[in-house]
Amino acid sequence: MRPGTVYLVGAGPGDPELLTLRAAKLLAEAEVIVYDHLVSAPILELGASGAERIYAGKERGNHTLSQSELNQLLVRLARAGKRVLRLKGGDPFVFGRGGEEVEALAAAGIAFEVVPGVTAACGVAAYAGIPLTHRDYANSCLFVAGHLKDGSVDLDWDSLARPGRTLVVYMGLLGLPTLCRELVIHGLSAATPAAIVQHGTTASQRTVVGTLATLPQLAQAARLGPPTLIIIGEVVRLQAKLAWYEKGAVEAGAEIGLERAQALAR
Ligand code: SAH
Fold this sequence. Notes:
This protein is α/β, with parallel strands linked by helices. It has helices spanning 21-29, 41-44, 67-79, 98-107, 120-128, 157-160, 176-185, 215-221, 239-242, 258-265; strands at 5-10, 32-35, 52-55, 83-88, 111-115, 140-145, 165-170, 193-198, 206-211, 228-232. It has a five-stranded parallel sheet with strand order 3-2-4-1-5, with helices on both faces. Strands 6-7-10-8-9 form a five-stranded mixed sheet, with helices on both faces. The protein is elongated. It starts with a strand and ends with a helix. Residues 13-14, 38, 88-91, 94-96, 119-120, 124, 170-171, 197, 199-201, 226-229 line the site of S-adenosyl-L-homocysteine.
C-alpha cells in the first residue's frame, strides 16, 4: 500500500469469505479504515489492530457524515500521508456513491485505486439460490435503485416490466408496494414470482418468496429489516429447489410456497 493513497474497496455483501484476496491484503495493511454501515463486523476485525477505524455512516435517514464532509475527510487523510482504506459494502461502483468519492479525490489530485467487490445482487442471489439469468427464464437482468433521495419511487416502468427480464432492486423495502403495483400496471402478470432477501450471505439471511400480488404483504408480515434485496422474475421459481444456504435455517412460517402465493394472487 502506498502512503498518501486512498484505496476504495468493495467488502462484498456480508460473508467475510466473499472478500477478494486484494481486499483482505489491503485490510491488513491500512493505517486508517473509513467504513460504512453495510460493512459487517467480522470484516472490520480483519483490519490491523492498530488501524484507526472511522465510521462514515450512511444508514437511511441517519447520515453521520455528509458526502462532502466524507470526501474532505478522505482528502485530508491522504494529504497527511496515510494509507487509507475506504471500505464499502458490496461493490464500490454499484449504488455505493464510490463514483462521487473518487471524483472528489481526482479533483483534489489524490492518488487512488478501486478494488471491486461482490455486489449484493450477485452475492445474495447466489446464497438465496436464484440464478439471475438462468436461460430457461431470463435473457437480461437489470439492477435498479428502489427509492430516490426523498423516499419516493420513480422508475422507467415500461423498461422494467418486460418478460424475460430479471429485476434486482436495491434499497427497495420502503417502495415495495409501489414497485409491485406499478410493474403490474405496466404489464407484468400479478403472478410473477418475486422474492425479498434480508441480510443476504450472513447467518441472519431470510428469504420471503411470493408474487407481485403478495410480496408486499408477506414482507411486512415477516418484519424484515434492512438491508434487503428484491428479486423479481421467473428465475425466482428456482429458489424452492436451489436454496442451499438457508436450508433448515428458515423459521417455520417465515416463508410460504410459491404455489400457494400464486393461488392467493388469482
Ligand atoms: N455497493 C453495494 C450497494 C449499496 S446500496 C453493493 O454493491 O452491494 C445498499 C443496498 O444494497 C441495500 O439497501 C440493499 O438493497 C443492498 N444490500 C447490500 N448488502 C445486502 C445484503 N447483505 N443483503 C441484502 N441486501 C443487501
